[in-house]
Structure prediction request, 170 residues.
Amino acid sequence: MRDTLVLNASFEPLSTVTLNRAVVLVLQDKAVVEQSHPELRVRGASVDLPMPRVIRLCRYVRVPFRRHAVWSRRGVLVRDQHRCAYCGRRATTVDHVVPRSHGGGDTWLNTVASCAEDNHRKADRTPEEAGMPLLRQPFEPSATDAMLFGLGASQREALPDWLAPSAGAA
Prediction:
């Protein structure tokens, strides 16, 4: 599970890594702990350091410009917080607002999280045709927001305010 956020030397979010990888980066002096879990520590024979939640690289890493987040089914579920866009219950599937058979594609703006019952009930129709209005409109998260959404709600709440996903994306 990827539960540690990695920041560039410029404090720009880069990626998420496993806790083990984060500890190795800190022990190799390639990163410093910016935020840690309040009570948890990593202890060894000659080491005692806070359990990292956010680390920052010591050297700047040049990253190619990421214009937008790559679409994925998991990304849609995480973006919509596993809540059905039609009824608000727990979502387990992804529904196409404009069905693929009508020309709709796998895009951020054409897919929403849906429970299996509503996905089946809507079938091969648009929400208007099915009489099922969307509770919230789909949006395209920025690459940074998509990465932060992937951390999980409990970990996002623990991040500093300046790292939280943008208000329009939540």
About this structure: The beta strands are 2-7, 13-18, 31-43, 48-57, 93-96, 111-114.
